[in-house]
Every structure is written in structure tokens, then in C-alpha cells.
Amino acid sequence: MKKLTALLLVAVMLAGILPVALPGGTAKAETKYMTVVGGWLRLRSQPNFYATTLASYYTGTTVEVIGTYGEWYNVKTPDSRTGYMYGKYLSSGGSKPVAPGTAATIISANGQGVKLRTGPSKGYGVIGVYPVGTAVTVLSSGTYWSYIRIGTTTGYMMSEFLSTGKKPVTPTGEYNARVISWNGYGVRLRSGPSTGNAILGVYAVGTPVTVLQHGATWDYIRIGSRVGYMMNKFLTTDGVDNTVTACQISNESPKTGDVLTVYTRPANAMVAYEWMNENGVLLSTDAAYKVQGSDAGHKIYVKVTGIGLFTGSATSKATAAVVATKTLFGAFISNTSPVVGDTLYATTDPSDANCTYMWCRAKTGVTPKFVGTGSSYKVKAEDEGYAIAVVAIAQGDWSGEVDSAYTNPVTAPGTGITGVAIDQAAPVVGDTLTCTVQPAGAKADILWTVGTDGFVGDTYTVKTEDAGKVITVSATGKDGYTGTKVSAPVTVKTADKVITAVVINESIAHKGDELTFTTTPAGADCTVEWLVDGAAAAATATYTVKTGDVGKPITVKVTGKGEYTGSAASTALIPVPDSVTDVVTGVVLDKTQAKTGEVLTATVEPAMADVVYSWTVGGAAQSETTNQYTVKSDDIGKEIQVTVTGQNTWTGSKSAKMTAGIKLEGVVITGTPKKGETLTAVVTPAGADCEFTWKVGDTLVSASSTYVVDPAYEGKTITVTATGAGDYCGEKTGSVTVAAAASDPGMEEPGEKVTTDEGSNSGELGNNPDAPGIIDGGNSVNENKENDTPEITPETNTETDDTGDGNSEVEMQDGDNDGGEGNDVSALSEDGGEDIGQPEAGIDEPTDGETKEGDGDGGELPNPIIPTDPMNEGPGLMF
Predict the structure, then answer these.
(1) Disulfide engineering: 553 pairs with which of 109, 572, 582, 686, CB 3.0-4.6 Å?
(2) Which of 620-624's residues contact partners 24+ apart within 8 Å by CB, and which partners?
(3) If you ran DSSP here, which 8-state letter would residue 14 be given?
(4) Strands 728-729 and 662-663: what pairing?
(5) Could you tell me if residue 833 is left (phi over 0), alpha (psi between -120 and 50 degrees) or otherwise beta?
């Protein structure tokens, strides 16, 4: 009873802040803003505790109030969602929140770094410490905490340390692009969005990049492990593949109550989501899906479809069948605004949980008291002015103890609703339910509760997924009528008593054949009607094909009787003449290329042909005998062939084949073919897994993706051969000829003017024709040197890479340290930056800010779901 004692203590505290019910109905309010208090607060699809949760928002989140519905507010959140929030956890006041996608800068009064955390409280772990001036993108803002992105890392930072003085930008999601320029020279990557920021490196035309955020003039991009800014006029998506190729569900062995997310390839692609079960029933279109009790026994998969710059779609592998847990998730009261004389009904999530109930009442200044047991409670006159709650205690093989939210204070009966009833006592799938409200002619808002979901409307049509669920309807008075009444519950007839399908047991029929059928569920008691060309032909369990039936469609229709309900009709069967020979005419594969783990599906022509399947890989027979084959790693580069051979009345044999793996389409060499320059092999498709062989004649000179030209090979042809590896196959070769030595290496080429004026080339393109990609302006280069001595020389420099692990890497050094700051960012330690001699470099909250976050949940606040990059093994919480 420990939980019960806690409930009573909480009741005493909550009773003092029980909300006054707002007028029933929906009314447009003047534009105003309110702030979430007490912890994480759910946004629901309807104004009741049974409705689907759309998202959750932390303390300090400011929302726009659109209207009211009883004790609920119809709101618009900072990320443009609309729905309903419970008014008890919204505080009056607040101003319009910062728009998602707003650019901001880190600030602090003492100039020291600020911590980025995994959640909106100083109790969460520290991801890293970032210096003043760091550019961030605000994804969602709140009074005390904001959810932000720095590079590819997301987390929470206190709002007081963020300045939004810069213009907002629109997040576009990550996408692929490549470097271009009209004179063929390399393009600079800078530490900030200005030609005044430090140069991080210069990259050749064709270099593949990932655009992390698109701006008006500058794009924030990633090249390898390095991130920075490049002018977007030197980036293009032409000829770049931004196709969504694969997706994977985060948990392939889910249980009821689990939250599923999706990993896509490419990572962080902009996509639309469709969560479905194995029967094709759409479950959700949100980015994440919480597994419901109704999913037990079903498999779940997700389809993602590219949007924005992304194209294509992919469907995940189905999960294992959802395992039903025996744990109570929640308790609910059917009527949140009771009137003396009402009967309140308790329900649970899951709805079939085995539990006992205890009812209690509470109000300010009065000790809470238990007033009843059982799954229902009739409100008494002495309950007037009290709020009612119920405790559900699991028993048997169930576990857990959960408390409902408190109702509004009980009111005395008046001119109000006296009753409501559902018109059907045993509804089945497909029925449209209506209700009758008493007294006759009373005006009321109608809310249908199906399992744990709520639906507003005068009628409700029973869905397939409702089978076995309990349905109630509540009527809340309006237009002069008061009070709320809830109907007695009715249960939808279970799926095993509803006929959902029927099939004819033969796929080919001739004159004289006897046709039979099978129902789903098997053996259902039903009436039968055989139809030939749409006309009734028989009402018997079997049907014998007649001479006149040949060439006409035959179907069977069944309708449940006795304990069975529902009806179904089969697909048509068309009898063929006895003289017709059934011949297999073809077979096709659904893919022309496939990676390891992908499934090939063979489709036979005609579709009704009765065939056997055999598969070979590289000429070797395989064990698969169905129309599907899963590609193995050993298959890459080999020819996969499927052969279908007719059986029974079918004759003939047909084959289809393809080569496993993704074929290399080509390889080109980028870079200047002259002594000392680095040549790079770029393959198509981009990012293909390859092995490289560089040769001059028969001499092997390199086995990596790059080659530095040896002066000994001036005037000779260099070839590179890319050979597919992993899931890629095939071989492609490219070549270039090394330029002969110039007669006077100190002379400039005709028509080119060397200058130190960086503005003359838009601030982004190098202009030394003898060394494309090497910066020759704005950094005090001696223009009279006869050799091409670049100002940027390879030098080992410790920097913080995009995962924040502080590893060293070799990069282009421009003489003033990486990024132009006075201190290397990686010098800041996680706990306050002691290695640079400062007392505390990690501030993220005021000294009295501990009371700002709030940690209550009020029975309505879920645990936070922290966004993460599942492809990043760096900081952040992993699912």
C-alpha cells in the first residue's frame, strides 16, 4: 500500500490547486501564450486522458492558446503541432516562443564556456562544454531550457546563455552535395559564415560534402570528419544521389509500451513516416511510435519516403511479433466532471488487466478518505465539492499499481444530462454506433472512448482493430445543460467470431470440377451464395462448374450466422476450356541490384501459374524453394538466377537473373596531374566501398584512394582501377597524363594575374593557376617566390572533431591556429575547463536556478525522449 499512501499525500497537495472547470465547448480565445509547468506535459489529439499522445514538452515550453474545451486548452506548440493540453499544468502568461530553426550564439557574463546537456535539467549528463561565440540552431525554445543543435550534436542548454540576435534560418535536414567552381580551382572551407573567418582547408571540384544546414549565402557542411562553412554558390546537388535507400527500426523485438524510432540511410534524411502492422493497418505517421496493447501478437514495420531534397522510399524489416507485457500502464475515470448521482467507471491500460480498485476523495483542508471499491463508483451527496480518484492494483499474474488523475470537484445536480446509452449492446466491426441522451432533446458534446483512445462526434464506426475492446460514450451538457453522463460499456465482438475473408480452394477450374471454399476464421458458421458472372447460381457448400460457366467469373459470398458476424466475398475464378494448355510465360525479379540482406522477389507470369521455384548463385544450387531469396555476403559479384517450372496442369519453364551487389558505374581522377600534387579517385556511385590500384605502366604506385605524383613520372600516364568491395562489385578504370615540367616554373601562366586581394575572387576561390586549391591571397604570401610555396602546409594540430572526442588529425594549417580563437576548443574540460587555469568554465544555470526546472509529473507527465543521432557513437543517450 506504499503507492496508495503516496497517492493520499499527493492528493492533499493537489487539492489546493484543483482547476476550476472552464465553460464546456470550444471557443476561440484571443491570442495569448501559456507556459508548461511541473515537468514533461503531453499534447493529445483530443481533450481527454484517453486520446492519443502526439508529443511531450518540458517545463518552460511556451505554447499559443487557440481555444478551450472544459479544463483542456487547444494549443499550438513551438514546432507547429496542434492538439490539447491539460490546463492544470499550464501557467498563465508567457510570450511568443522563438521560432524553430532560429540561429543563436552562446553568451556568458564571465566569458567562460557553457555546458550542453542530454536533458532540460542540471541533473542530466554533460555532452560537452562550448565556448562563447559558438553558433547554434534553436530547435525548440523554453523559458529556462532550449533544445539546440551544434554541428551534428543536439542537446539542451539554458536559454539565458543563448543570444538570438541573428536572423532565423530554416532547417532543411541533411543532404548530399558536391563542390563546383567555374574556373576549376578549389573552394575554401571556413570556420564561420564570413570571408573574415579562418580557413580550415581548400577542397577540389567534385569533393562530396554533406550539407548540415542551408543558409542564404553560406551552408554549414561536413567533409569527412571536418565541419565548417562554404559559400553555397560553390555547392550543387546536380548529379548527387539523395535517395533514401534503407531504414531500420531501433528495436526489432518490441514489447507493449516500448517506443520505436527509425534509423535511415542516409542518416538524418528528411522523410515522411508510415508505421504499419503485417496486415497493412496504418498505426501512425509520427517519427516515433509507442507500441500499444492492441499491437500484441502483431509484427510492425515502417515505410519512409523522402521529402524536400530527398527522393525514394524504403521499408524496414518487420519486427518480431510484439510481446504483451503483464504490467499496468495507467488508470482512468470515465467522467472528469462528475455530478452527484453519477456512476463513475474505472478502466485501465491495458484494458484487460486483472486488478482491484480503491476510490478516494480529497479537497483543501480535509484529510483524503477512501470511499469505495470495485470497478465503478456512484457519486454520493456527501462527495459534493470533493475531487475523486481511483487506484488500480494489479493481481494474479499482473504487476503494478497505478493512480488515475483527480476529477474536477463534484457538483450538485441541476438542469443537466441525466443519462446516455449506446444503441447496440454487441457491436461488430463495421457497425456505426449512435447514442441516446436523456432528457430527450438535451444539448451535449459527445465523446466516444474505445479502449484507451477518445473520439469526438455524434457517431462512431467500429474498426477492425477495435475487436475485443470496450466502448463507452459520455455526454457533457452544453447550451444551458450541465453535467456529464457516461454510458454502460459494450464490448466489440472479438475477431475470431467475425468473418473477414473467404477464398475458393482452387486456382484453376474446368467444366465438371467441384469448387469448395475456406473462411477466415476457418470453420465459421455462415450462409453461402455462389455467383456466376454476378448472378446467383447456388446456395450450397460446394459448386460444380457447368458448361456455360467456362470463361465467366465465379465468386462465393459468405455471411456469418449464429455466433459469427460479418461477411466476405472471394476473388473471381474463371473456368477455362479443357483444351487449353496452361503454359508459364515468364518470370521477373523485382530488383536489378541488391545488397547483402536484401530480399529478391520473383513474380511469375501469368500470376495464377502453379510453379516450383529453384535458385542458383554462381551456378550453385540453393536451398530456397519459395519466390524469395535473401542475398548473402558471399553472393556479391555473382550471378543469381531463379527458375520457375510449371507443375500440375502447368507446363513450361522460365528463368530470370541478376548480379548481386551494387555495380560500380565509373571512376574519375580529380586533382592536377603534375609533380607533387595529390590525385584523388572519385567513384560512382558516391561512397561506394572500393579497393584502389594506382599504376604507371605495370608499376604499382599506390593502393589508397589518393596518390601524390612522383616527379619521376612527368609526361607518363597514370591509371587507377577501382574494384568493388563489400556490397559493391565490378571494376572501373580511369587515367590521366602527368604534365611535363614547365620550362620556367617561376613564371605565371598567360592571362592570370596573381593578387593578394581576396575580394577579387569572391573570397572563396584560390587563384594561383599553378596550384589549384592553395590559398594565395590575404595571408602575406611572398608573391615573388619562384617556387609554388603554399601558405598552408600540412601540420598536426589538435582539434575537436564532429563527435567531440578531441582526437588529433592532420589538417591544413593557416598560421593562426584552427579557427582563429585564442584557445583550442578541446582545451575546455567537461567539468569546468581547469586545464586553461580558469576556476569554472562550465556554467549552465544561475545559482538559484535549481527551482526553475520542476520535476513533478501530476499523473500526466511522461518520461522525456531525448533525440539522438543513432549513427553517431559519440556523446548523447543511445536507445
Answers:
(1) 572
(2) none
(3) H
(4) parallel
(5) left
Beta strands in 638-785 (DSSP E): 639-646, 650-651, 653-659, 662-663, 666-670, 678-684, 690-696, 699-702, 706-708, 717-724, 728-729, 731-737
Handedness of CA 112, 116, 120, 126 (dihedral sign): negative
**What is the pLDDT confidence band of residue 537, given thresholds at 50, 70 and 90?**
very high
SS3 state of residue 125: coil
Distance CA 249, CA 516 (A): 42
**Chain centroid to CA 138: how far?**
20
Own/partner long-range contacts of 431-437 (Cβ < 8 Å, ≥24 apart): 431/461, 431/462, 432/459, 432/460, 432/461, 432/462, 433/459, 433/460, 433/461, 433/462, 433/471, 433/473, 434/458, 434/459, 435/473, 435/475, 435/487, 437/475, 437/485
Nearest to 23 by CA among 339, 479, 486, 457: 479
Cis peptide before 521 (omega within 30 of 0): yes
CA–CA separation, 139 and 68 (whole Å): 27
Residue 373 grid cell: 471499491
pLDDT digits (tens, 9 = 90+) for 265-314: 877 777 889 999 999 889 988 888 988 878 889 999 999 998 877 888 99
Grid cell digits, residue 687: 561512397
| pLDDT in the model for residue 357 | 94
Give the model confidence (pLDDT) of 401-418 as tens digits: 888 888 888 887 666 788
Q: What is the DSSP annotation of 182-218?
A: SS---EEEESSSSTTSPEEEEE-TT-EEEEEEE-SSE
The pTM score is 0.28
Q: Which residue has the cell 459469427?
A: 564
Amino acid at 524: A
Is-contact 245 265, C-beta < 8 A? yes
Residue 222: is its pLDDT beyond 50? yes
Looking at residue 840, its pLDDT comes to 32
Angle at CA of residue 507, ends 504 and 510, nearest 5°: 100
Whose cell is 483543501? That residue is: 364
Name the DSSP class of 61: B
- Rounded to whole angstroms, how far apart are CA atoms 282 and 260? 15
Rounded Cα–Cα distance for residues 476 and 285 (Å): 31
Give dist(CA 88, CA 108) in Å, integer: 34
d(C-alpha 570, C-alpha 558), whole Å: 9
Task: Identify whether the C-beta of residue 869 lies closer than 8 Å to the C-beta of residue 267.
Answer: yes
Q: Cα-Cα-Cα-Cα dihedral of 88, 89, 91, 96, to 10°? A: -130
Give 836's DSSP letter: G
* Residues 6+ positions from 54 with CB-CB distance below 8 Å: 42, 43, 44, 45, 81, 83, 286
**Cα-Cα end-to-end distance for the chain:** 33
Q: Which grid coordinates belong to 864?
A: 522525456
* 728-752 tens-digit pLDDT: 998 999 999 988 865 444 333 333 3
DSSP labels, 612-637: EEEEEETTEE-S--SSEEEPPGGGTT
Contact present, 258 and 323 (Cβ < 8 Å): no
pLDDT tens-digit readout, 782-840? 333 332 223 333 333 333 333 333 332 333 333 322 223 322 222 223 333 222 222 23
pLDDT per residue as tens digits for the range 24-52: 333 333 467 888 876 678 889 888 888 88
Residue 867: what are its φ and ψ, rounded to 5°?
-60, 145
Instruction: Return the closest-CA partner of residue 322 out of 255, 380, 263.
Output: 255
Cell (9 digits) for 510? 474446368
Q: Is 160 helix (H, G, I), strand (E, B) or coil?
A: helix
Per DSSP, the three-state class of 469 is coil
